[in-house]
């Protein structure tokens, strides 16, 4: 019996067309390759937040791996639903990664570390939380869409379309933010010309979001025409408008990795900054401790702290060393000497 000889309305079949095994194998290999490259770059550049794009690649790889199994075994939903869920939700991870990179670029390059008066940390947290919210909305639609009840299935489609609509809304808002960042950086280059690699990374963020937008528009058109009509029954459209944009959106960060443009101590957000300040206030510590062996090497102090703090430490070291050397202090002038000078 031919594997594609099935009825579309069967309860144990989720496919609306005969899926290609070869295409699923090809894109599983491509997503696995770019994911392995991101794992290597994650380790090489030591950017902890890059685990997010690794998750995007892993979810895409898992989705197409399940697609291979489901294409070989048409009947059964245990492999069809996971492949659909992984492929649908993987772009949300990439969205979050783009937001996190933009926040760190603002913190690293903008002197005020703000855009539109909002701090880089707050921008990152806000957009990531919004992205997680859209992910929860989209994931909640999966069980409804796979229901045998037409009303529940239709409700699931509407919920999913609302979720990706929110995702696109957040992307549009993010474009305004990124445009403002580009404007500020252009002004900074006019007054203080520097050859910084921020522009290439920013263009990669733009490219990734445009590719995700193409994929979102495809999904909106696909589900707006119904589950069994239009693009939903065309596998070529799926690969051209879903798989291809996503493989390029992930691979573009293999070419221009954030670790190339974000190098240095301020390329990451500070950890526990507020807690440390509260502890220092309680203990009455206005500056960090310096042991005597550390005071002998001021190069590290200059690199890690501000110049003013380093200069203050040097002055204090000079005072302390003077206080601990009795011979360096001149003896007090006798009182008779002052009387004698006054009489003269």
Q: Main attributes?
A:
344 residues, mainly alpha, Rhopdopsin 7-helix transmembrane proteins, two-stranded antiparallel sheet, 2 strands, 71% helix, elongated, disordered C terminus, transmembrane helix, transmembrane
SSE order and pairing:
Blueprint (H helix, E strand, L loop, with lengths): L20 H25 L5 H22 L7 H30 L4 E2 L2 E2 H26 L4 H42 L6 H27 L10 H21 L2 H4 L11 H11 L8 H4 L2 H7 L2 H17 L11 H9 L1
Helix pairs in contact: 1-2, 1-7, 2-3, 3-4, 3-5, 3-6, 4-5, 5-6, 6-7
Description of the molecule:
This protein has 344 residues and is mostly helical. It folds into 2 domains: 21-267, Rhopdopsin 7-helix transmembrane proteins, CATH 1.20.1070; 273-343, no CATH class. 71% of the residues lie in helices and 1% in strands. The chain has 13 helices and 2 strands; from the N terminus they run αααββαααααααααα. It has a two-stranded antiparallel ribbon. Helix 1 (21-45) packs parallel to helix 7 (235-255). It is elongated. The model is unreliable at 290-315 and 318-344 (pLDDT under 50). Residues 271-344 are annotated as: Disordered. Its main location: membrane. InterPro entries: RTA1.
């Amino acid at each position: 019996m031919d594997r594609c000889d099935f009825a579309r309305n069967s309860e144990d079949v989720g496919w609306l067309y005969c899926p290609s095994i070869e295409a699923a194998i090809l894109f599983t290999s491509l997503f696995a390759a770019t994911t392995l490259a991101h794992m290597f770059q994650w380790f090489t550049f030591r950017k902890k937040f890059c685990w997010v794009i690794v998750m995007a690649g892993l979810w895409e790889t898992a989705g197409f791996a399940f697609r291979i199994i489901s294409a070989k075994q048409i009947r059964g939903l245990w492999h069809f639903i996971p492949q659909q869920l992984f492929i649908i939700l993987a772009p949300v991870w990439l969205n979050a990664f783009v937001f996190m990179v933009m926040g760190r670029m603002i913190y690293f390059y903008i002197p005020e570390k703000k855009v539109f008066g909002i701090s880089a940390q707050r921008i990152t947290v806000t957009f990531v939380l919004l992205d997680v919210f859209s992910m929860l909305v989209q994931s909640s639609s999966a069980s409804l869409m796979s229901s045998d009840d037409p009303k529940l299935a239709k409700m699931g489609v509407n919920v999913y379309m609302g979720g990706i609509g929110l995702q696109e809304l957040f992307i549009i808002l993010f474009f305004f933010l990124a445009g403002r960042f580009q404007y500020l950086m252009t002004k900074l280059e006019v007054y203080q010309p520097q050859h910084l690699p921020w522009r290439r990374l920013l263009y990669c963020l733009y490219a990734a979001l445009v590719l995700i937008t193409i994929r979102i528009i495809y999904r909106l058109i696909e589900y707006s025409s119904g589950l069994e009509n239009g693009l939903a029954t065309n596998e070529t459209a799926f690969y051209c408008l879903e798989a291809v944009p996503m493989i390029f959106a992930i691979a573009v960060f293999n070419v221009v990795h954030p670790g190339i443009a974000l190098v240095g101590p301020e390329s990451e957000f500070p950890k526990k900054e507020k807690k440390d300040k509260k502890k220092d206030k309680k203990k009455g510590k206005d500056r960090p401790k310096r042991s005597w062996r550390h005071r002998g090497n001021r190069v590290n102090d200059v690199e890690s702290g501000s110049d003013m703090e380093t200069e203050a430490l040097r002055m204090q070291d000079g005072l302390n060393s003077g206080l601990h050397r009795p011979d360096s202090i001149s003896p007090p002038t006798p009182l008779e000497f002052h009387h004698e000078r006054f009489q003269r």
